[in-house]
Amino acid sequence: MRKGLIGAIAATALTASAASAADVYRSPPPYAPAPVPYGYSWMGPHIGANVGYQWGSLSNSGAKPNGFGGWISSGYNWQFGQFVVGGEADIQLSDANDVFANYKFSNPWFGTVRGRGGFALNNILFYGTLGLAYGRGHVDIGSAGESNLHVGWTAGAGLEVGLTPNWSVKAEYLFIDLSSESYGLTLTNNGLTSNLVRFGVSYRF
Questions:
Q1: Helix (H, G, I), strand (E, B) or coil at 18
Q2: Do residues 9 and 92 make contact, with C-beta atoms less than 8 angstroms apart?
Q3: CB 163 within 8 A of CB 36
Q4: Separation CA 64–CA 99 (nearest Å)
Q5: Which pLDDT score is estimated for 30?
Q6: CA separation for the pair 47, 194 (Å, rounded)
Q7: Which tens digit of pLDDT belongs to each residue from 30-64?
Q8: Which residues contact 109 (CB under 8 A, 6 or more apart)?
Q9: Where are the beta strands (DSSP E) in the chain?
Q10: Which residues contact 61 (CB under 8 A, 6 or more apart)?
């Protein structure tokens, strides 16, 4: 009986050793890839609205038109990793005006068509922008008025923050240089340079 008991114990030990060896040489389970880090997408078309403050000066004049304004913008972004490029256009209504000597100069509306490029840190986008600017200049002397269309350029920079996959907010600065045009009422050529700080919200499709 003792020999039978010893044999059973030995058989059990050998079986356990074989199972352990099989575990050692068994192929490891497939490696599960690490999850892809979350990345905010700036890609696609967008439309938005903004409001801001404009201040500037009129050439060949002491007028310094300033005032509030805002309206709409639209554009498209392409994204290459952390780099974002695109185009954007906007049109703005403005109450910027000033009185000098015997006349009032106002800039009732203006718009821009710009390229935009920047660097994204997930949902935070730092960007610069450059392009075409255009706008209306208007002179009033008494009951007489005269308007001209001015064309020029604009450059600036901004910061945009994504709040959801579709919605974002931004703060932007633009320098706008509208070239000189001849005004019969002022008997001179007048051009408008302006600084614009504005805040906006955008929706991406």
A1: helix
A2: no
A3: no
A4: 8
A5: 55
A6: 24
A7: 555 444 345 899 999 999 999 999 999 999 999 99
A8: 91, 92, 93, 94, 135, 136
A9: 44-58, 66-80, 83-100, 103-121, 124-141, 144-162, 167-183, 188-204
A10: 100, 101, 105, 186, 188, 190
Overall pTM > 0.85: no
The two tokens of residue 201 are 């919200």
DSSP-derived secondary structure for 117-161:
EEEEETTEEEEEEEEEEEEEEEEEETTEEEEEEEEEEEEEEEEEE
Give which of 180, 184, 103, 185 is closest to 149, Cα–Cα: 180
d(CA 8, CA 6): 5
Joined together, the tokens standing for residue 202 give: 């955008």
Percent of the chain with pLDDT over 70: 81
By CB atoms closer than 10 A (0-12, 13-18, 19+), residue 176 is: buried
Burial class (CB in 10 A: 0-12, 13-18, 19+), 151: exposed
Place of tokens 């008991």: 5
Six-digit token string for 168: 């974002």
Which pLDDT belongs to residue 31? 52
Name the one residue in this structure whose structure tokens are 């020999």: 3
What amino acid is encoded at 80 in this protein?
F
Q: How does pLDDT run across 111-133, given as a tens digit for each residue?
A: 999 999 999 999 999 999 999 99
In this prediction, residues 78-106 reach a mean pLDDT of: 97
